[in-house]
Amino acid sequence: MGETLEQFAAACSQALEADNGPRGRNEVRAHLEKMLSDPDFVARYVDEQGPERKVLYEDPKHGFLIVAHVYHQGREGGAHDHGHSWAIYGQASGESDMSDWTKLEIAEPGKPGRATYARSYTLRPGMAHLYNEGDLHSLKQKGPARLVRIEGADLTKLRRLAYHIV
What is the CATH classification number for the domain harbouring 14? Predict the structure, then answer.
C-alpha cells in the first residue's frame, strides 16, 4: 500500500507552508495526481458506495479540506467560482467534462454576473486541475464518478453568486 491519508495531508500541508499561493497549490495538485494513481488509496478513501460529500481531513493550520465526492449518476453544475477560496478537483473514477468561463461582468449579491465560454477539457482518472480564487468553471458527469477535491476553505460555508452565460 502507498501513502496513507495522513501522509498525503502532511505533504499538502508542507507544500502550502512553503508557498500558500499558486506554486504551492500546484505542488498539491501534482501530489493529488500521484495519490489518484494508487488504486489502494482510491479504494480506501473514495468508496464507491460513499456519500456525495465526505470530509476526509481538515488542516488545522492552513484550513484546507480533503473531500471525497461520490456521484452515483450523472450530473451537471452551472458556471461558478469559489469566491475567496481555491479548489483542486481530482478524478478518481469516471470522467468529468470541465469548462472554463471568462468573466465579462463580476457578480454581486442580488446582481448576477455575465460570462462567456473559454474552453473545455475532460478530467480522467488520475488527473487533477487547480482553480485559483475567482476562476470560473463548470463540470458535467455523464455517469457515475468519484472525485477528491481539495478545498482552500470549507466550500459549503461560502456564498456563491450567479452568472449568466452570454
Answer: 2.60.120.10
Structural domain count of the chain:
1
Q: Which residue has the cell 461558478?
A: 80
Burial readout 75-107 (b: 16 or more C-beta within 10 A, e: otherwise):
eeeebbbbeebbbbbbbbbbbbebbbbebeeeb
What pTM does this model have? 0.95
Q: Which residues of the chain have pLDDT under 50?
A: none
Cβ atoms of residues 80 and 73 within 8 Å: no
Q: Which domain holds residue 56?
A: 5-165
Ramachandran region, residue 163 (left: φ > 0; alpha: ψ -120 to 50; beta: rest): beta
Indicate the Cα dihedral angle 81, 84, 88, 89, nearest 10°: -30
